[in-house]
Amino acid sequence: MRKVALKIAYIGSNFSGFQRQADVPTVEGEIIKALQEIEIIESPDATDFSIAGRTDKGVHALGNVVALRSEKEIRINQINKALPSEVQVIAKAPVHFGFRPRYALRRYYRYIMTDFEGLDIAKMLMASEYMIGTHNFLNFSKRSERNPIRTVESINISKNGKTIITDVVGQSFLWKMVRKMMMVLYQCGKGEIDPERIPDYLNPDFTHGLKPMPASGLILMDVEYKNLKFRYDKYAGDLFISTLKEEFEKTFNKAMVEQSMLQTMIELPGQINNFQV
What we know:
Blueprint: E1 2-10, H1 27-37, E2 50-51, E3 60-70, H2 76-82, E4 87-94, E5 106-114, H3 121-131, E6 133-136, E7 149-160, E8 163-170, H4 177-190, H5 198-201, E9 218-224, E10 231-232, H6 234-267
Parallel strand pairs: 3-9
Antiparallel strand pairs: 1-3, 1-4, 2-3, 4-10, 5-8, 5-9, 6-7, 7-8
Helix pairs in contact: 1-2, 3-4
């Protein structure tokens, strides 16, 4: 009997989140189905199947982690053949029987937003400084959280053309916490919120009805553990890169069509009534 940790990459667009659910496709559900198909496991409970964390519907990942026990040798490419192309095991590491992937050293998220409105990066950076450190993030999740105290190690914001990339690192995060943080930063960049008001949002005595930014912009980049190094599989990585390229081309073509339609409508104000059916 051996126990291994598997690092999972996935495109979350077509899944109803990570956690398995009845009657809807999920990332965890596909992983368990694949492991059962190739007879690595009979059932999740019997093999101590556990996960690092749940991601919401539409969220992507390059480094989520699951762990399981099995008497059989676990081969990455054998698992990947049974998985849909949008979900792939890209690395593995042997772990001790007491290993629990949820108890990570740190988690690293990246959020991508398109800057069509000329956001003020300086204000976003100023606001992010208030969020770094140990705070009560109750307003950034659901009010029923039993322990809303979390520590954010770092927030880095950079701009590349019309794209703003925000990297957030911490040991653990609440449900929708990162996406709600991104919404506040976005509103600061738009000038709707003064960065100096951020301490108010970190005060649990005041209720703020924060909405999260769209899930499609969020990526779980990595989950790290003390004294644990994963061995990456180049073949699996190359296959996932190929899938990412295919998805990019489909999304890019769709975006170009929509951009063309948008530009036409902007350049031809009032002409919609002249179109003949």
